[in-house]
Amino acid sequence: MQKQEQIVELFDQIAPTYDKLNRILSFGVDTSWRVAGIRGVLERMSAQSLDILDIACGTGDMLGLWTRLCAQFNKELQSLRGIDPSSAMLELAKQKFPQCEFIKAEAANLPIDNETADIISISYGLRNVIERQKALSEFFRVLKKGGFLLILEFTKREKGGLLKWCRDFYLSRILPKIGKFISKNQVAYEYLPSSIEGFLSKEELARELEEAGFFVVELKSFSLDISTAFIATKQ
Ligand SMILES: C[S@@+](CC[C@H](N)C(=O)[O-])C[C@H]1O[C@@H](n2cnc3c(N)ncnc32)[C@H](O)[C@@H]1O
Predict the structure, then answer these.
(1) 213 — pLDDT class (breaks 50, 70, 90)
(2) How many angstroms is it from 89 CA to the middle of ligand 1?
(3) Range scoring the smallest mean pLDDT among 73-87, 102-116, 129-143, 194-208
(4) Which of 49, 75, 158, 200 has its CA 20 to 30 A from that of 117?
(5) 151: closest CA among 71, 91, 208?
């Protein structure tokens, strides 16, 4: 089996316990990281009526927040679509957000027309995309001029020190144990820290975005650099 298929299968396996574990493992603060990223986009967005695509939507956390925050910003949601290659994740998202449209697809092959999205978001998903550069080109292709891309991700820490040690200890020792206890799937929760270590630093991801044609307008880190929001635009 190809590596990408194995990753998607892991998400199929952990889907039933994903929401519960997400809240426990991030101590509930992931919602504040998501809200800050979404606000950063909506504050810059001049269009009133929006077509939003959430890639690697999982069980749909971002879909609920886009709906709530668009209403707060008085934006009309023309369309809100969730895309993910995991059938089990999509099934849960459909139950939670029956008003949204869902598409089973990978980030690197989007069945979406050119320049049709005002906003693309991908939260904690890009790390899992093997053909990352191809996916970034797809995001650029699908986004309208003046549109925004929001990436939320755990990036690799390059500087050492106590902070890095604490984060690494939590990710490599504590998180897999809690993950295994609740999901009964140790492999999946060992994959998380290794996928972060194998991922890019903030600077490297910002460079890849620029290489794909984007202009990076904001790069904001949260909670001692654990999570970072990248906001980029297609000029
Ligand atoms: C950690 S979850 C994040 C889910 C959701 N965005 C969130 O913030 O809770 C990662 C998601 O990426 C999806 N995924 C894995 N490989 C992918 C790919 N090549 N393209 C798009 N999504 C992918 C998985 O199925 C999973 O739903």
Answers:
(1) very high
(2) 9
(3) 194-208
(4) 200
(5) 208
Whether 209 has a pLDDT exceeding 90, the answer reads yes
- CB 37 less than 6 A from any atom of ligand 1: no
Residue whose CB lies within 8 A of the most ligand 1 atoms, among 5, 32, 89, for a mutation test: 89
Could you tell me the CA-to-CA distances from 65 to 62, 174, 195 in Å, in that order?
A: 5, 28, 26
Q: CA 60, 178, 5 angle in degrees (round to 5)?
A: 50
Residue 142: Cβ-neighbour burial (10 angstroms; 0-12, 13-18, 19+): buried
CA–centroid distance for 235 within its chain: 22
Task: Output the residue whose Cα is nearest ligand 1's atom 26.
Answer: 58
SS3 43: coil
Rounded to whole angstroms, the Cα distance separating 80 from 125 reads: 18
